Amino acid sequence: DLVPPEVTTFYNELTEDDKKILKEVAEKHSEYATDEDALNALKEKSEKLYTKANELRNLVKDRISKLNPEAKTFVDTIIEKLKALRPKKDEKPNLTELRKEANEIVEKFKALSEEAKESLKTNFPKITGVIQ
Predict the structure, then answer these.
(1) Phi, psi of 111 (to 5 degrees)
(2) Are residues 59 and 104 in the same domain?
(3) For residue 40, what are the CA distances in angstroms to 20, 36, 83?
C-alpha cells in the first residue's frame, strides 16, 4: 500500500520475460547517464515494456509537476539521493546508509511548510502517510 496503484498494476502485469529484461537493464544502471538512456536500453529489448514503463514514468512526472515549488524540491532531492544509493552490479544495498537517508527524509519532511506537506499529501497520499 506504499506505492500508487498504477505502480502496483504495472508490476503485477509484468511477465517473467518483462522482469528479466528490467533486471538486465537495472543491473547496468551505472552505464546510463540519464533516465532517457535507460529507457532507450529498455526500448531496444522490448518496445511493449518501454511503452508501459514510459507511461508510468510520465504519470509520476505529472504528479511531481503538480506539487508546489517547496514540495517539488523536496521530492527532486529525494529522487537524486535514492539514485545515488543504488548499489553497483553485484553489490548489496547498504542498509545502514538507507536507514540514515530514510531518517533524514523524515526530518526534512517535518521541516516543510504546511502548504508543502498538503501538496505532497494530495499528490502522493500513501507515501506521505508513511513519512509522517
Answers:
(1) -80, -10
(2) no
(3) 16, 6, 18
